[in-house]
Specification:
mainly alpha, 71% helix, elongated
């Protein structure tokens, strides 16, 4: 976060000031003016990137994780039924969530499916990948 404040914040500030300075100099009806207005309205939504180290400036990771799904779209068209498509969407969501949390999806799903039947419904959060990742780290520290 400190590096973002030192390096990225001045760039954000300069860009915003420059865009504000350019807007009155061009015709409001041009595509360039529309693009500048678009950028300026989104600057407020970009600012949390400077304050939170876990936020990313782009959505490349999300796009990259969806790539295999997009490439196989024609194959997935015939999932068998609407229910099959929904089940596949749930499976993809669980697997990608595990990956984003640095957890081996197969190990997590194996463990979770073995524990879920006896687990309290009010404590399902304990079975989520982010909780499993913390358990793995704790187990590694004990070794």
């Amino acid at each position: 976060m400190k590096i973002r404040q030192e390096k990225a914040k001045p760039v954000f500030d300069d860009l915003e000031a420059w865009l504000n300075a350019q807007l009155p100099r061009i015709s409001a009806k041009t595509p360039l003016a529309g693009a500048i207005r678009y950028a300026l309205t989104r600057m407020k939504r970009l600012r949390p990137y400077l304050e939170n180290g876990f936020l990313e400036l782009d959505n490349n990771n999300a796009e990259r994780s969806m790539r295999c799904i997009a490439l196989g779209r024609k194959n997935y068209f015939f999932m068998g039924s609407e229910g099959g498509g929904k089940a596949a969407a749930i499976a993809y969501t669980l697997i990608e969530t595990a990956k984003l949390n640095g957890v081996d999806p197969q190990a997590w799903l194996t463990d979770t499916l073995g524990r879920i039947a006896d687990h309290k419904i009010t404590k399902l959060d304990q079975l989520m990948p982010w909780s499993y990742a913390q358990l793995s780290v704790t187990a590694d520290c004990r070794s």
